[in-house]
Amino acid sequence: MNKDISQAELEVLKVLWARSPISANEVVIALADASAWHEKTVKTLLNRLVAKEAVGYEKDGRAYLYYPLVQQADYQQKESLSFIQRVLSGRIAPLVAGFAKQQKLDAKDVAELKQLIADWEKEQKHD
Amino acid sequence: MNKDISQAELEVLKVLWARSPISANEVVIALADASAWHEKTVKTLLNRLVAKEAVGYEKDGRAYLYYPLVQQADYQQKESLSFIQRVLSGRIAPLVAGFAKQQKLDAKDVAELKQLIADWEKEQKHD
DNA sequence: CCTACATGATTACAGGTGTAATCTTAATTG
DNA sequence: CAATTAAGATTACACCTGTAATCATGTAGG
Fold first, then answer.
1. Is A1 exposed, middle or buried (0-12, 13-18, 19+ CB in 10 A)?
2. How is domain B1-91 classified at the CATH fold level?
3. pLDDT tens digits, B106-119
4. Distance from B35 to chain A by nearest Cα, in Å?
5. For residues B118 and A105, is the Cβ–Cβ distance under 8 A?
6. Contacts of A125 in chain B (CB under 8 A)
7. For a FRET experiment, which of A20, A123, B5, B95 has its CA 20 to 30 Å from that of B70?
């Protein structure tokens, strides 16, 4: 059963995406600067992720080493699609527009977008 | 105090974005086909939106006519930015890429994106 | 004029979430 | 070997959410 991952849980999962398998304590340390979470809180979040089958672990002595069971790219793709449908009624352009308006769009983004568009157009032609 | 709008609340808000001011009953009717919500549920959601100051109303006899206090474009922009930061670590291209990969990108999207890019590039030049 | 109905207000209630504290148990240390 | 410690497991608890039901009240119809 793959339930929704909450925002706090996502922060923990991000740590595991960056590096894994790691112990609960290493996760706590990795989160220490960014968030002001208590160690117990992080452990709870890890537990919940395990319960949701988003994270697995292997035993390492009496401690566990945790690692993600869901891949970041999969997660991002699924969430993006659902976000675009839920909030943007399925249109992606307004999102990019808002991003541009807030000066969040940089040259790298634009280059990537142009590449994507070129790919898409090529795809259309020999379809 | 402008709290977060939940998913169910958003559905109600969408109705008001499409047409307002309208009565609670008109909202119920507008939602009747899409969702299987009980009238009472819709009223609760309207109340919560009012409590969150996302929706206002004016009296019309003994009933209220509801209308949005937050504009859709503002909401979408804010949510998009926070989504991209929270889930995509601030990069927008992967989102578009995922969208393209799932064949959700159509000619209209591409045209709009090209226009946005053109605007952005012009903006950069005389900056 | 009184009663039924419609409307908003209040209350309900289980499950999720943020944020921990306490419990259990195995290992480490003196 | 006993006591402290550290890991994970269990429990806590208030607030949010989905999904209504019940309450109060003003209005409209008989």
1. exposed
2. Arc Repressor Mutant, subunit A (1.10.10)
3. 999 999 999 999 99
4. 14
5. no
6. none
7. B95
State whether residue B105 is helix, strand or coil. Answer: coil
- Residues, chain B, total? 127
Give the nearest partner residue to B99 out of A81, A97, A101, using CB atoms. Answer: A81
pTM: 0.87
Token code pair at residue A109? 């983004």
Spatial distance between the Cα atoms of A26 and A23, rounded to a whole number of angstroms: 5
Cα–Cα separations (whole angstroms), residue B79 to A6, A68, A115, B70, B103: 16, 26, 26, 12, 23
Nearest chain A residue (CA) to B97: A116
Going from N- to C-terminal start, the domains of chain A cover 1-91, 96-127
Report pLDDT digits (tens) over B77-98. Answer: 899 989 999 999 888 988 888 8
Residue nearest to nucleotide D11 (CA to C1'): A44
Task: Give Cα A123 to chain centroid, integer Å.
Answer: 28
Q: Which chain B residues are within 8 Å of A80, Cβ to Cβ?
A: 83, 87-88, 94-95, 98-99
Give how far B98 is from chain A: nearest CA, Å. Answer: 5
